Amino acid sequence: MRGLTDFLITVHVMKGLVGRGPALFGCLVMLAIPVVLLAVLIDQLYPGGFWTFAWKVMVTILKGFHL
């Protein structure tokens, strides 16, 4: 919970210093780094690559919603 509070305080301070646009861009870049890292790891470790993994996830979700 403390990490979330620190994150929100940092966003608020940065928004005050540089404006809303650059602060939002910085947050998006910061949050995108783990997503890109996860995609690279899945691509390297999953036998069919990232797109096969994504396809199987999508099919599993659709089957789960329609059963």
List the helices and strands and how they pair.
Layout: H1 2-18, H2 20-45, H3 50-66
Helix pairs in contact: 1-2
How would you explain this protein's 3D organization?
The protein is mainly α and 67 residues long. It has three helices and no strands. The radius of gyration is 18 Å and the shape is elongated.
In short:
This protein is mainly α. It has helices at residues 2-18, 20-45, 50-66.
The coarse silhouette is elongated
In what range is the share of β-strand residues?
A: under 5%
Q: How is the biggest beta sheet arranged? A: none
List unreliable stretches of 5+ residues: none
Termini gap: 37 Å
Radius of gyration: 18 Å
Mean pLDDT: 85
Class of secondary structure makeup: mainly alpha
Instruction: State the helix count.
Output: 3
The tally of strands reads 0
Q: Helical residue percent?
A: over 70%
List descriptors.
mainly alpha, 3 helices
